[in-house]
Amino acid sequence: MPFYNAIDINTKQGRRTAQRLLKLKEGLSSIPGKTVDDRLLLATWNIRDFDKSAYGDRLDESIYYIAEIISRFDIVAIQEVYKDLRGLKRVLKVLGGYWKYIVTDVAGGTRGNKERMTFVYDSRKVSFGGLAGEMVLPSVKVKKGNKTEIVHAEQVWRTPFICGFRAGWSRFMIASVHILWGKSEAEPKNRIEEIGKVASFLRKRTQDKTAWSQNLILVGDFNIFDVEDETFKQLTDNGFEIPESHKEFCTNAGKNRQYDQIAFMIQKDRLDWTGTCGVVDIYEHVFTEKDEKTYIEFMGKAYEKTTKGKKRTDRQKSTYYKTWRTHQMSDHLPLWVELKIDFSKQYLQRKIDKEVETTDLI
Predict the structure, then answer these.
(1) Which of 82, 215, 319, 345 has the largest count of CB atoms under 10 Å?
(2) What is the domain partition of the chain in residue ranges?
(3) Quick one: fold of 12-287+328-352?
(4) Nearest by Cα to 35 from 341, 289, 347, 323
């Protein structure tokens, strides 16, 4: 569990942090408890501009809340980690030394938005398997008249990150993505193309006998507006399975979009989901709508007036607060799933049936 020794209970903010952490802990109690080796808790979370300080620095209490949520899982894929790792390191300090991270270099250019893809994991349960790489789409053959030319593929705006991990009896790859965001659900062409390219590439990779593992979990922010969209079909049409219950979860702060997903292409006798999954509804526990007045002192003059000096109405103030709090926590809600990773009985049965070779890998 996180370390709370730096919370100064003698200050107003410190006392509020302790009180809210107790409330948050109660809210997170619906997530299964962490085990030693039979189940794995995996989450994906786009933490908005982490930590870009677009609306001012994140408060210390926000860092504690983020750490508290992450601590409930064994491994978390985080999108939108900013080039400055200050925010991530603040969270890791609260989590403790047994929490490790793997991070990409900064995605350059306006498309990359100076973001990093990151995995944080509890090293008491999960170990890094040695595989790490950013996904690069291969060149394609294109016919032009009577000639066939090799054309360099248009790369994904924010390069997907693939890592191999071990936990219990399982080894698996996780690919984390942050698909580009379009102006509206009526303009999904680029998203469709990106998701389709990523899903197709990863499907072929798992079918390769030399792949580090045939178990692949694809997670992240796909910016899918609805599971009935063509964007979502790009995943399922390429053979990825998504738990039915995940299709009902909205993962944006407004709770009306299904941006984030966890999809599987796995050998179910070596890695499988238990049927238990969910979304952490952050604002039911911290930075609630009732807390608006509490944070006026931290929102600054912009809460009271616009940049043109016009006084905000109560409704406009409330809207500003709801945006501000997403820069304290996020505009996305963490999506999680519980996985089965103890297949010792199946392994022993395969040995009895003489189906196990010395190179058989879980």
Answers:
(1) 215
(2) 12-287+328-352
(3) Deoxyribonuclease I; Chain A (3.60.10)
(4) 341
pTM of the model: 0.92
Write b or e for each residue in 136-156: b if 16 or more Cβ atoms lie within 10 A of its Cβ, otherwise e. ebeeeeeeeeeeeeeeeeeeb
* Per-residue pLDDT in tens (0 to 9) along the chain, 362 residues: 899 999 999 999 999 999 999 999 999 999 999 998 899 999 999 999 998 888 888 999 999 999 999 999 999 999 999 999 999 999 999 999 999 999 999 877 666 678 899 999 999 999 999 999 988 887 766 777 777 777 776 777 788 999 999 998 899 999 999 987 765 544 556 778 888 888 888 998 888 889 999 999 999 998 888 888 888 888 999 999 998 888 889 999 999 999 999 999 998 888 999 999 999 999 999 999 999 999 999 999 999 998 888 999 999 999 999 999 999 999 999 999 999 999 888 888 888 887 665 555 55
d(C-alpha 220, C-alpha 81), whole Å:
13
